[in-house]
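User: Teach me something about this protein's shape.
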Amino acid sequence: MRKHWLDNLRWFTVLLVLFYHVIYIFNNKGVEGGLGGFVEGPAGQPQDIVMYILYPWFMMLLFLLAGISARFALEKKDGKTFLKERTRKLIVPATIGLFVFQWIVGYINTRAVAATGALDQVPLINKWMLYALSGVGPLWFAQELWVFSLILLIIRKLDPKDKFRNLCAKSNWIVILLMGVLFWFGSQFMIFESDTPNPSAGLVNLYRPLAYFIPFLMGYFVFSNEEVLQRLKQGFLPIALGALASGIALCLTGWGKCPVQASYLAGWLNCLYAWMMALAMMGLFLNCFDRTNRIFSYLSRINYGLYVLHYAVLLAFAYIFKEKTQMSPWLIYPLLTIIEFTLTPALYELIHRIPFVRWAVLGEKKNKKM
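Assistant: First, the predicted structure itself:
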């Protein structure tokens, strides 16, 4: 039986990622990778509060949902088929797709370097490879999820009779809440700020392998159990209130800090808020959105395509608006949001109809039925 709440929560979270990037692209809070803010000083740009609200939990939730989905998928297919499909869906877009489409992201990302003339003498083929390798963007999620899926297949062999998962099905509310401690533990495995520059810090702190692997395993072993989901459904209200309170406290105490800084992400309040929000969102969708319609079904079908394609669309228009026009920021934000939420689905509909390109960019084996 299809888990509509799971499908709906997944596409809704992906839409939050799209909106987050509209704010992130112009942030002035020290988050690297964007195009820079419109004003100087971290106290400015109140719209950046969106990053403080969303970043602590939405990627963690996507990994948790991926763990649940992995469990349901492996109930229907063997490990070899599962890994083959995950490789096509995740690794192909995050490797071959870089050279077919995501080089656009790398091209814009390297504009500052190109402006210095450093690339003038570089052969075109070498530039293309540089652009492709610089265009990973949000596809780090696909790369990491594939690795997690591979490790999961190994872990499953250690417990072929599902004894551990059956034990997890008995988790009560205290156990579920205390699982947040495991997420906090995983969040400590990052490279913290120091006076000595560390080139690998940015990459490690972006991927946060243990902080995301733990929720992925929780999804597979704990939250794929119907008994646990029913407890979440019944206890939604107090969890939601706890998430709201911890979120407000985090925003008040963290405003102005870099929201992706290791010391900030590893803080107990950040981890508490992230865990409570993940539980609250699952409880909300179990209660209110365990159903489908034509719109929900369509968004469920294209959500991964939106995730893969949106950043190139966003970055291209954000670069034009900020660097090539004198447009007001308060016009740029809504206009960019409209463009991203309309052109990205249109681009998906185009690409997924082109045989080789849909495989390379979206990981689709064949054209999906409309």
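Now, about its shape. The chain has a mean pLDDT of 91. DSSP finds 18 helices and no strands in the chain. If you'd like, I can walk through any region in more detail.
User: That's plenty for now, thanks!
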